[in-house]
Amino acid sequence: MSHETVAVPTRPSELTDAQWERLCAYGTAEEVDAGDYVFRSGDHDYDMILVDTAEIEIVRDGLGWVDEVVLTRMGARTFAGELSLLNGQGAFLSARVAEPGRILRVPRGQLRRLMAEDDELCDLILHALWERRESLRTGPAALTLKFVGLRGSREFLALDRFAERLDLVHTAVEVDPDDMGVHADHGVRIEDLPIAYLQGEPVARATPGIVADRLGLSYQAETDAAVDLVVIGGGPAGLAAAIYGASEGLNTVLLDAVAPGGQAAATSRIENFLGFPFGVSGGQLIGQATLQALKFGVRVYAPCEAVAIAEVPEGLEVTLADGRLIRTRTAIVTSGAAYRRLNIEGWSRFEGSSIYYAATPLELHQVAGAPSVVVGGANSAGQAALYLSGNGCPVHLVVRGTDLRQRMSSYLVDRLLESPGVRIHTAANVTALGGDGVLESVRIDTVGDVDARGLFCFIGAEPATSWLGSLDRDDHGFLRTGTDVTVQSISRWQQLGREPLPFETSLPRLFAAGDVRRGSMKRVAAAVGEGSSAVASVHRALALA
Questions:
Q1: Whole-model pTM above 0.85?
Q2: pLDDT of residue 10
Q3: How many angstroms separate the CA atoms of 219 and 232, rounded?
């Protein structure tokens, strides 16, 4: 056994007598002896443990190739638990009694009740849970979820991106096909990659869905009763809708086919979002919004893809890709849009390994200061070009239009023109890709071939509505809502005695917000406003039902 000193915050703050008394009112007392485990890694449902007179040590269990590590010891007036208490993830650390005494168990249901009823304690606990999660992301705890995959492989990147977007404590290790190193010594074969090690147990050819299932993050109905609101899509519009719905008393479920964030999570820097004078990355914004959703009791499931929705007597029924069903009284579609691709030979061959639709630290690591090409003429392309060049990558920015200011904010254009690391090509197109296995060059019609190890594509997106074929959409696939619903669809409303509410689609009690909706402004702030406004219509629909 190994003992390490790890900077794991143990106290939400110095609790007053009154605060501790209120906190203990939600728990059930239990006497424990030294050596007892109050929860174990792998427990899918575990309690928050209030430490009264005992002493608890938090342990990263042995993982087969490494011994157990005691991360920290927790004494009186502390509690054991971290962010997984709120997001439904099973325990990945163990809590063992070091000194006998009294503890109190607070089940997850009671914890949610506490956070709804006591704002002061809610803020103290939430801050402590978040601090602990962040501190555990480096150090021994990160080995509890370990990914091993081929350098640059799309499957490995999908796993790493899934874990990063969900803020999971994990480690990602890239290997070269010609040099597997210690992994080959342990019998790992290339055809098994990527491998996910969960508590030291290998899962070959792992996918985000498989890992989510093993961690307890896939959808499981808590009861047979219908929920009040299902939000389909975890971008800014979906997160805003889920937060407002849950904070206003609705039993809310949020689904995303990949992980919360949408296109906003792919943005390296947003500088014109209200309240952030120094800018904010998409990842930071989405991370804080997801934490806020958990605070209000939103149940977040990802990857969890909705493939159909139908009207049933009690409301709506959402069908998931794995066949599971969710019954709900209302739903909001915020599924956003799917990235557009260039119609170039070899695109699919490089996609996922050298072609990216985001510019975040994860993608930056893949290109590692090498020459890159950014395609697009709107803000997301400009932000990506500045981010990459600011981190040592020479950038060619390829813009089809002749005027960079036509679709890009002036402040971005000015910075791009001043940046020595960005070469701008207007009235230009990418016409060919070159490379064997990985991207080596990109052909731009106005200058010829340029060296490139990464191509970052920001040319817009198509609404993700193909799974909603029966709903009223415009010629481009965007959902019609409210007064925009066509006359042909109005007949089904006559028996309800009303017209579609704002943001309501042609299917009663199904709403749409954000990029997926016809007429929406494709901006983060606008999506947040639409998501929250759609919830007002949800309340009206429930009152009229």
A1: no
A2: 54
A3: 13
For 68-136, strand residue ranges (E) read 69-74, 78-80, 94-99, 101-106
Which residues of the chain fall below pLDDT 50?
A: 1, 3-5, 7
Quickly list DSSP for 399-437: -SSS-GGGTS-HHHHHHHHH-TTEEEE-S--EEEEE-SS
Euclidean distance between CA atoms 67 and 70, whole angstroms: 10
Q: Are 537 and 338 in contact (CB under 8 A)?
A: no
**For residue range 348-367, what is the model confidence (pLDDT) as tens digits?**
888 877 999 888 888 898 89
Nearest to 281 by CA among 261, 296, 295: 261
How far is 455 from 442, CA to CA, in rounded Å? 8
Q: CB count, 10 Å around CB of 272?
A: 13
Query: Distance (Å, rounded) from C-alpha 345 to C-alpha 433?
Result: 7
Backbone Cα Rg of the chain: 25
- Cis peptide upstream of residue 303 (ω within 30 degrees of 0): yes
Q: Read off the amino acid at residue 25.
A: A
Here the tokens at position 282 are 């998409």
C-alpha to C-alpha distance for 351 and 11, rounded to whole angstroms: 45
Q: Which two tokens stand for residue 18?
A: 């009154």
Q: What are phi and psi of 58, to 5 degrees?
A: -95, 125
Token pair for residue 68?
A: 């157990």
How far is residue 152's CA from residue 365's CA, in Å, rounded to a whole number?
10
Indicate the angle between helix axes 119-136 and 108-117, nearest 10 degrees: 130
- Length of the chain (residues): 545
| Percent of the chain as helix, strand, coil, to the nearest 5 | 35, 25, 40
At residue 525, the pLDDT reads 86
Q: Show the tokens assigned to 530.
A: 């639409």
Q: Which amino acid is at 471?
A: L
| Own/partner pairs, 522-527, CB within 8 angstroms, 24+ separation | 524/236, 524/264, 524/267, 524/270, 524/273, 524/282, 524/285, 525/273, 525/274, 527/235, 527/236, 527/237, 527/240, 527/264, 527/334
Q: What is the C-alpha to C-alpha distance for residues 307 and 42, in angstroms, rounded to an integer? A: 30
* DSSP assignment of 267-333: -S-B-SSTT-TT-B-HHHHHHHHHHHHHHTT-EEESS--EEEEEEETTEEEEEETTS-EEEEEEEEE
